[in-house]
Backbone:
């Protein structure tokens, strides 16, 4: 069973990278592998978050990606560094789209959008793991394990 408490545990489970979002937005995505896998958005400091009323995310198809401060507070999960678990058939393509959305571009990466309403979003880390298994199943299994441990989905993994 995977633990989601700290970065060292994630590394023991095969995750690599741990680049800041600021680095990734500045073309750090080029080092990502092309094949599929799962990726995480990780908050290295265990302090109370500061939420933004208006985040950095783009308005895809005219929809406002922002939610209320109350909803952000309700979604926050204590005692974990993992904020979002994502899947990708191409890690390079998917994480690049996620970073573009975080720069305000109107791209179709609606998942994980709550991350962009954190004041420290540029200091968050991106980690990834290639998988031979179907990334959708790996993501689903990881979210289930997280939910079993914390009683909730990761902060930015909203129910569709």
Residues:
């Amino acid at each position: 069973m995977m633990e989601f408490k700290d970065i060292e545990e994630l590394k023991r489970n095969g995750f690599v990278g741990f680049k800041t979002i600021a680095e990734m937005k500045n073309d750090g995505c080029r080092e990502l592998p092309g094949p599929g896998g799962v990726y995480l958005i990780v908050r290295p400091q265990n302090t109370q978050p500061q939420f933004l009323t208006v985040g950095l995310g783009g308005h895809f198809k005219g929809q406002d990606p922002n939610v209320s401060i109350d909803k952000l507070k309700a979604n926050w999960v204590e005692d974990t560094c993992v904020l979002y678990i994502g899947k990708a058939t191409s890690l390079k393509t998917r994480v690049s789209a996620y970073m573009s959305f975080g720069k305000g571009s109107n791209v179709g990466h609606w998942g994980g959008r709550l991350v962009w309403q954190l004041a420290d979003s540029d200091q968050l880390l991106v980690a990834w793991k290639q998988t031979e298994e179907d990334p959708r199943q790996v993501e689903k299994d990881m979210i289930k394990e997280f939910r079993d441990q914390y009683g909730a989905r990761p902060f930015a993994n909203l129910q569709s």
